[in-house]
Amino acid sequence: MKKLFVxxxxxxxxxxxxxxxxxxxxxxxxxxxxxxxKEWDKAKALGNEDTKAKVDGIKSFxxxxxxxxxxxxxxxxxxxxxxxxxxxxxxxxxQIKLVKDGEKWIVNDKKxxxxxxxxxxxESLDGALDTLSNExxxxxxxxx
Length: 144
Fold this sequence. Notes:
Number of domains: 1
Strand content: 15-25%
Shape: elongated
CATH architecture: Roll
Mean pLDDT: 78
């Protein structure tokens, strides 16, 4: 009888923790580790279409998501949305968003959250174009 009670208690305990197994902190941690380790398919499997597009973008631009370490993942959950912060990025924002899809959490990592590779690339290209324009102006002036 004692063994039966302990068995039932163990099942009840694990069942009550079952929601945490795939909770937002776990999904966010798995996603961030996949990005850090360049496991593109795994990262895409944890997200929606926006996330998949972002992962493809990171991959195509050299594969550096800027994540140096994944620790201290904490999520602020409001009904079917979660904003998760984490440590550690080379630079930029250190948060991602998740949404609840049915019974599971998925990453909703758009440009405006997490590493904003699109903005960084745009700023870099703008700077390069400004430099090129200035060099062309200087070259034209020296020819005249």
